[in-house]
């Protein structure tokens, strides 16, 4: 079990003030949240403890009982721990934990226009993806901020969070679907009294990404403290890091950008024993230039510059495939992606409760949150040699037009351009707005002579996501506008197509650095750009009861049980130019009819959003038992924990999750063992079941090797069934032995196998599978009919598998330096995860499993660690921390060789050098208690301003991986917080 995760909790669990406070009063607590003892940093009893005689509920289990030690590792980060990290957004603090791998955020997906996850702060455990990590607020589900159902942590009220539990084992038996990787549970201070605030500001070394945060919370009891009201409000603004535009230049003086790329050799070179891929720097794409490049025929290599004048393009050296090294790098677009989005979050939250008596309350919580992002995925709109320019184009210089007419029998040249003459870069504006209300009751009652605790609630949540894209072109209109001729009657330059002219076409000049015709720009990039409006709704009714049912031979036998009903639904609408004119969106502005555009949509350069809708409901019930089986002075103490959950989905049918675990406090001083095995589930989400339909024309090969033209209909698959995971873990904990009272060590092994993984297939893969006898696919394939009637429904199926296993480590040691004649207290902590395997198997004939552990183009390094050293003395606290990821490879499937290479295959390409370095980042923080109520603090992240490791791809993306590396650079923050 992931004891180390539990250790994660303890690792971060020590704030400077906490360590100082507890050093003199008690020994260091075990690195194990399941001990059911308050965190050492928080001497006041938890809310759960206050209500139920020091019983603490931990998120890894539904059992709340004195002395219960759960088998599932759970890390707990207190509010003081999160304060030490001093990030503007709590999400940015959590993703530093080694167990969290693959989370999204404002530095990821900045290259994407159409993914829909831009600016989404969602957590991922074990690299299994955000879809397989369940994120809760006070143990309750939260409406998804995306059609996949994942939540946005930025929409949570963060100032009132008193702790975050990170459950790194499978938890579906306790919480239901999506908890394959684990659970992250945000626990708020439900009875907060007083006033507290936080004000923070900062920026990077490069004077960008300037940010500010204001938070305030107030709580008070009325009517003899039976009525309790608490409210909080917070706003965070991070200005982001804008694109520098074209060329080999990083934003605002960052000099590490070197145009990285993977250069692909020719088949002849590969046959001669050279590798297929070579990592290069200063890569120049040969299919386009900043203001235009002729890419074929006798004029190949002619570029256009100021005033439209032609000049010989500088290709650089070692030109192979699509790339040269060096030469004219002015038109490269890789550096044009924003490093971080402009980001704004606003949250308002309130909780009102009424105590019916000393043990029972009813309550209402309400949350409104809005998260806005703005970013540019790339400058211009690169056309990589795929344009056809006719020789009589009116904007061509006379010399080029004459040479074209004599040298190109077809009357046209191939042409590529970065379209740097465009007056604005594409910019994407996602806005997510959440409205959520919960009414509930909790408390305790007596039955059959036993005390029982309960909680019940009903939730209604709505999330509206609006994606708008500005300054982006319509492909058909662009093609019409660049094909310009002189009107024989008037001598004016006009669009060649009479139909396009009738529809308002205005010509543009794409030859050289010349001011664009703004009438032409407004024609190809109308004000009403791509738009998507999504409404997601979640309704939940849930009830849970737990207590001791009887006294066993080794202690009380505890029981928890409950039931839940949930309904999720969504509707999504795209604009008519993207989704098709037959499905006019009720939310989008009016889009003028244009017969030159495709009526079925997909007209935009990017951002072609489509319409869809769907819903499902689920009924589920669970039971969990904790049975003490051993209590002996000779053999120690042990308990067994079992749970079972039955679910029934209106779409995916029945599913079952279970858990069997045990803990043993051995007679060996400070040594405890625990193990758990569980079956966990993830039901298909709304987007997988009811994806918006898109249609494209394709060709596939039938079983006889004949090419067949088809319609590829990209759709959802209502026949999907739940994913099933088997999660096994075993942990060893050494906690405060008598011979080392301030020492903790934990080691946990985990193994997670996921079957029936939902994975999308291509049209050809579906045809091949149907021919191979997979009947569940054949219903999506029809290729033997008359011409024009053949189709393949490209959709997702339950074929794939995932398998991840590894080991978590944590150690902690605290010492009073006064024992050595020095002032203060010192706390040393370290947490690390070693991922042994992260295997993905598509499950499709002709494909092979791939190993993701150590693949540095992904999100699962072999090692990820977080280490800190904290010193506290009097009013002053200092913390030094290190974040480390190990070196890895481009792909574990690549074969590294320099000469005499084998012929590469699709599964195993060859590469000159498969090594990618790791990275270490050092952070420094300080706190100073100005008064007992007010603390000033400062933080420097990435103290050495370490540049991100370049991770080139086969295309010219930015060449970095923000999922693993710090892409922002040294960042300074200062702030003040107070509590009264």
From TrEMBL:
Keywords: Cell outer membrane, Membrane, Receptor, Signal, TonB box, Transmembrane, Transmembrane beta strand, Transport
Domain TonB-dependent receptor plug positions: 70-183
GO cellular component: cell outer membrane
Domain TonB-dependent receptor-like beta-barrel: 441-943
Annotated compartments: Cell outer membrane
Signal peptide start-end: 1-19
Family label: Belongs to the TonB-dependent receptor family.
PANTHER family: PTHR47234, SECRETIN_TONB SHORT N-TERMINAL DOMAIN-CONTAINING PROTEIN (PTHR47234:SF3)
Protein name: TonB-dependent receptor
Taxonomic source organism: Duganella callida
């Amino acid at each position: 079990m992931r004891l180390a995760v539990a250790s994660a909790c303890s690792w971060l669990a020590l704030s400077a003030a906490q360590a100082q406070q507890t050093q003199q009063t008690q020994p260091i607590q075990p690195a194990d949240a399941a001990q059911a003892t308050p965190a050492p940093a928080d001497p006041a009893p938890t809310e759960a403890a206050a209500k139920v005689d020091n019983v603490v509920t931990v998120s890894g289990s539904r059992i709340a009982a004195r002395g219960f030690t759960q088998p599932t590792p759970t890390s707990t980060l207190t509010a003081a721990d999160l304060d030490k990290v001093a990030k503007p957004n709590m999400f940015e603090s959590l993703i530093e934990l080694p167990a969290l791998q693959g989370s999204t955020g404002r530095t990821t997906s900045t290259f994407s226009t159409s993914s829909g996850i831009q600016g989404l702060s969602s957590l991922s455990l074990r690299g299994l993806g955000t879809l397989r990590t369940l994120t809760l607020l006070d143990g309750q589900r939260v409406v998804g901020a995306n059609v996949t159902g994942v939540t946005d942590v930025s929409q949570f009220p963060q100032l009132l969070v008193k702790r975050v539990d990170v459950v790194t084992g499978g938890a579906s038996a306790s919480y239901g679907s999506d908890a394959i990787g684990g659970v992250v549970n945000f626990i708020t201070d439900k009875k907060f009294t007083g006033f507290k605030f936080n004000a923070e500001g900062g920026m990077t070394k490069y004077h960008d990404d300037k940010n500010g945060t204001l938070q305030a919370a107030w709580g008070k009891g009325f009517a003899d403290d039976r009525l309790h009201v608490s409210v909080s409000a917070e706003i965070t603004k991070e200005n982001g890091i804008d694109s520098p535009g074209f060329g080999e230049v990083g934003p605002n003086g960052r000099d590490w950008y070197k145009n990285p790329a993977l250069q692909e050799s020719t088949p002849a070179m590969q046959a001669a024993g050279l590798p297929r891929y070579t990592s290069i720097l200063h890569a120049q794409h040969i299919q386009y230039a900043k203001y235009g490049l002729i890419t074929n025929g006798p004029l190949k290599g002619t570029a256009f510059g100021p005033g439209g004048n032609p000049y010989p393009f500088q290709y650089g050296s070692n030109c192979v495939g699509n790339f040269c090294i060096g030469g004219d790098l002015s038109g490269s677009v890789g550096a044009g992606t924003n490093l971080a989005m402009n980001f704004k979050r606003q949250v308002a939250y309130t909780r009102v409760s009424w105590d019916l008596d000393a043990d029972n309350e009813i309550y209402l919580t309400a949350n409104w949150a809005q998260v806005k992002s703005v970013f540019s995925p790339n400058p211009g709109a690169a056309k990589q040699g795929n344009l056809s320019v006719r020789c009589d184009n009116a904007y061509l210089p006379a010399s080029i037009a004459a040479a074209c007419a004599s040298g190109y029998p077809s009357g046209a040249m191939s042409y590529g351009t970065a379209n740097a003459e465009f007056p604005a870069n594409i910019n994407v504006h996602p806005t997510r707005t959440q409205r959520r209300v919960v009414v509930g009751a909790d408390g305790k009652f007596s039955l059959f002579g036993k005390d029982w605790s309960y909680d019940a609630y009903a939730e209604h949540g709505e999330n509206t996501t609006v994606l708008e894209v500005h300054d982006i072109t319509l492909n058909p209109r662009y093609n019409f506008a660049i094909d310009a001729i002189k009107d024989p009657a008037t001598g004016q330059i006009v669009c060649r197509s009479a139909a396009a002219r009738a529809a308002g076409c205005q010509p543009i000049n794409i030859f050289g650095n010349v001011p664009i015709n703004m009438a032409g720009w407004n024609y190809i990039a109308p004000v009403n750009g791509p738009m998507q409006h999504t409404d997601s709704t979640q309704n939940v009714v849930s009830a849970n009861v737990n207590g001791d049912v009887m006294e066993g031979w080794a202690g009380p036998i505890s029981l928890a049980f409950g039931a839940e009903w949930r309904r999720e639904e969504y509707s999504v609408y795209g604009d008519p130019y993207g989704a098709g004119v037959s499905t006019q969106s009720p939310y989008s502005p009016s889009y003028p009819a244009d017969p030159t555009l495709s009526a079925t949509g997909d007209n935009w350069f990017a951002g072609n959003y489509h319409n869809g809708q769907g819903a499902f409901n689920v009924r589920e019930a669970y039971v969990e038992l904790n049975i003490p089986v051993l209590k002996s002075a000779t053999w120690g103490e042990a308990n067994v924990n079992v749970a079972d959950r039955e679910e029934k989905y209106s779409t995916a049918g029945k599913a079952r999750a279970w858990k069997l675990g045990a803990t043993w406090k051995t007679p060996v001083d400070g040594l405890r063992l625990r193990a758990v095995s569980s079956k966990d589930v993830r039901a298909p989400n709304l987007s997988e079941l009811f994806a918006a339909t898109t249609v494209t024309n394709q060709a596939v090969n039938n079983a006889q090797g004949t090419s067949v033209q088809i319609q590829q209909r990209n759709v959802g698959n209502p026949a999907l069934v739940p994913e099933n995971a088997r999660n096994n873990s075993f942990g060893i904990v050494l906690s405060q032995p008598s011979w080392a009272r301030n020492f903790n060590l934990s080691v946990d092994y985990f193994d997670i196998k996921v079957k029936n993984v939902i994975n999308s297939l291509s049209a050809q893969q579906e045809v091949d599978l149907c021919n191979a006898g997979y009947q569940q696919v054949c219903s999506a394939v029809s290729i033997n009919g008359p011409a024009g009637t053949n189709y393949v429904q490209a959709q997702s199926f339950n074929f794939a598998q995932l398998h991840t296993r590894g080991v978590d480590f944590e150690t902690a040691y605290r010492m009073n330096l006064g024992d050595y004649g020095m002032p203060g207290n010192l706390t040393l902590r370290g947490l690390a995860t070693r991922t042994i395997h992260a295997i993905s198997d598509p499950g499709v004939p002709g494909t092979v499993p791939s190993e993701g552990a150590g693949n540095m183009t992904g999100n699962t390094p072999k090692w990820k660690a977080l280490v800190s050293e904290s010193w506290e003395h009097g009013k002053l606290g200092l913390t030094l921390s290190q974040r480390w990821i190990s070196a890895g490879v481009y792909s574990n499937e690549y074969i590294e060789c320099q000469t005499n290479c084998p012929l590469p295959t699709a599964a195993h390409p060859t590469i000159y050098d498969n090594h990618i370095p790791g990275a270490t980042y050092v952070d420094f923080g300080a706190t100073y208690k100005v008064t007992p109520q007010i603390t000033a603090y400062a933080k420097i992240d990435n103290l050495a301003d370490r540049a991100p490791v370049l991770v080139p791809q086969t295309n010219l993306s930015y060449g970095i991986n923000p999922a693993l590396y710090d892409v922002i650079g040294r960042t300074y923050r200062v702030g003040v917080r107070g509590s009264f």
